[in-house]
Amino acid sequence: MTTTIIITLCSLLLIAYLFDYSFKKTKVPSVILLLLLGWLVRQATVLFELQLPDLSAILPILGTTGLILIVLEGALELELNKSKIKLIRKSFFGALAPLLALSFLLTYIFEQYGGYTFRDSLINAIPLCVISSAIAIPSVRNLTKSNREFVIYESSLSDILGVVFFNFMLRNETVGLDSFGIFGLQLVVICVISFVATIGLSFLLSKLEHHIKFVPIILLTILIYAISYVYHLPALIFILIFGLSIGNLNELHNLKFFDIIRTDILNKEVNKFKELTVEATFLIRSLFFLLFGYLLETSEILNTSTLIWAVGIVVLTFGIRAIQLRLSKIPLKPLIFVAPRGLITILLFLYISPENMIGLVNKSLIIQVIVLTVLIMMVGMITNTNDADEEEGSDGGDTDLEGASGQASVEEAKPVENKADDHTPGDGKST
Question: What start and end residues bound the annotated signal peptide (predicted)?
Answer without folding.
Answer: none
